[in-house]
Specification:
The chain is an alpha/beta fold and 226 residues long. 43% of the residues lie in helices and 15% in strands. Helix 6 links the parallel strand 4 and strand 5. It is globular, with a radius of gyration of 17 Å.
Length: 226
Amino acid sequence: MTDKSYKGYDIILFDLDGTLTDSGAGIINSVKYALRTNGDDIPDESVLLKFIGPPLWESFETFCGFSHEKACGLVELYREYYREKGLFENAVYDGVEKMLSDLKAQGKRLAVATSKPEMFSVRILEHFGLAEYFENITGATLDGTRIEKADVIACALERCGADKDSRVLMVGDRKHDILGAHKNNIPCAAVLYGYGTREEFEEYGADYIVKEPSEIAVLAAQEEGK
């Protein structure tokens, strides 16, 4: 944990799904496609919603009870639909672009750290005209060599050239963002407008909980002792 008496941050890392964009429809439709194509039963909507945020293979294992081998096969089927259709069954949250613009106006450095494959993340952010706000977009690798959120965050930090004196904040909407940030010794602001809950954020020790995108710009700008 970091000293929360100082809330000014120079580098802001953002999750993508549930933080910058509402990607629920595309993810759920891709999961349904994978399960249907493989001849598996499709779970209730309440279960499908849990797939938004965590690494896909982990979700197929945890929420469907599949082996790691089968989960990896379903991820490949998922990508068949996602790369053609699911990618753009998506929308930018209200207030996100203004928040990013405000942060850039403050002189903040912005980057993306997401469990979504990097190639898909770049396409999404370019499609919605948000890529220009970020100095790097770091995601998971398709070959599985970088899939854990902590590893994605570590890679994003390296690409930013962050060191021990850098003031870095992770912004996300699920426990994986909090745990990944803390493993890299940086704080995490969890957003309530995404797919996580206040109970989840409190259980996993989010450093800040924010309701709206505009609060992120305010948090990043605050000076020591304010």
